[in-house]
Amino acid sequence: MTATSSGSRKVIVSCAVTGAVHVPSQSPYLPITPEQIATNALGAAEAGAAILHLHARNPENGRPTPDPDMYMKFLPQIKAGTNAVINITTGGGQGMALDQRLAAALRAKPEMCSLNMGSMNFGRFGIANRIKEFKFDWEADDLEASRDYIFRNTYKDIDYILKTLGEGHGVRFEYECYDVGHLYNLAYFVDAGLVKPPFFVQTIFGILGGIGTDPEDLMHMKRTADRLFGDSYRWSVLGAGRHQLPMVTMGAIMGGNVRVGLEDNIYLGKGELAKSNGELVAKIVRILKELSLDIATPDDAREILNLKGAANIGF
Ligand code: KMH
Ligand code: ZN
C-alpha cells in the first residue's frame, strides 16, 4: 500500500512520455522534438501524473538518442512548468552502450531514474507487421534488429548505476522488473545494502522477452514481491500496448500505483490512437476516481518514495 503521512492511500500515476520502443510511423502523436516532449510532459502532469519518465529522440527523424544536450532542450522547460517528479531513463534505447545510457542522467542528476533489473531479449520486431509505410529509413532495420538484440543489464551494470547515480547523486530508482527473476535480482541488491526502502518496483507486463499479461502473471509478480520485500516496497504496474489499461486498473485495485503513456501504449481505446500523453493520463485518472481512489500529487510521491526534492537536481 502507498500511504502518505496523512494516512490515506494515494495512487502515484507515472507517465512515460515517448520512450524508445515505438517508432514514429506507428503514430503521428508520438512526441519527437524537444518541444513536443515538453508539451506532452506538461500535459500529462496537468492531467494528474506525479512522475514523468523521460527519453529523448532526434527531432529530425524520431530515433532515440542518448545525447544529454538533447535532454537539456526539454528538461528545463518541464521543470519550469510543473512540480512533477522528473525521472530519466537509464535503459536508453536499443544499441546504446552503458555510458551513453547514463550520460543524460549524470548531467541532470534528477530525483529519479529507471533501473532495469536484468539482461533480456526485447522483441520489438512484431511492430513492423502493423506498419504499412515507414516514414524514416532507420525504423524497419531497427525493429528487425531486435531479433538479435540483448538488452544488457548485468549485475556489474546495475551495481555501477546504484553506486554512481544512487549513492553518488541521491537519485532514487524506478526498478523495472520484466519478469520474476528480476525481482530476485532486486532482492539480491536489497540484501547487499545497495537498495534501501521504500523502493519503487515497476512491474512490467507484455514485453516480448518478459512475463505476459494474464491476471495470473500480475498476481504472481505481486505475490513474489510481497514475499521478498514485505512492506519495504511500493508497487507499480506497467502494461504494454493494449494491455496497458486493464493491467494498470487491476494493479490499482490490488493496491498498486500505475504507469501509462505513449512509451508503453499508443492507443486510447480500440483502434483509436491517443493524441497526447495527457489523454492517457486523464483516462486512468478518471477510472481511479470512479474506483474512489485518490491520486498522489508530486509532493505526495516525493514523500511516499523518499525523494531528494526538486531543489536538489542538477539543472
Ligand atoms: N520501455 C519500458 C518497457 C527504461 O527506460 O529504462 C521500460 C522502460 C525502460 O521504461
Ligand atoms: Zn523508458
Which stretches are poorly predicted, pLDDT < 50 over at least 5 residues? none
Q: How many strand units?
A: 16
- Whole-angstrom Rg: 18 Å
Instruction: Report the β-strand fraction as a percent range.
Output: 15-25%
Helix content class: 25-40%
| Number of helical stretches of at least 4 residues | 11
How far apart the termini lie comes to 32 Å
Given helix and strand content, the structural type is alpha/beta
Which ligands occur here? Answer: (5S)-5-amino-3-OXO-hexanoic acid, zinc ion
Order of helices and strands: EEHEEEHHEHEEHEHEHEHEHEEEHEH
Q: What does this 3D model show about the protein?
A:
The chain has helices at residues 34-47, 68-71, 75-81, 98-108, 138-145, 155-169, 180-191, 215-229, 244-253, 277-290, 298-305, and strands at residues 10-11, 13-16, 51-54, 56-57, 64-65, 85-88, 112-116, 120-121, 150-151, 172-177, 199-205, 233-239, 257-260, 267-269, 272-273, 294-295. The chain is α/β, with parallel strands linked by helices and 315 residues long. The protein has an eight-stranded parallel beta barrel, surrounded by nine helices. It has a two-stranded parallel ribbon with strand order 1-16. Strands 4-5 form a two-stranded antiparallel sheet. Helix 7 (180-191) links the parallel strand 10 (172-177) and strand 11. Helix 1 (34-47) runs parallel beside helix 10 (277-290). The radius of gyration is 18 Å and the shape is globular. The mean pLDDT is 97. The site of zinc ion has 8 residues, from loops.
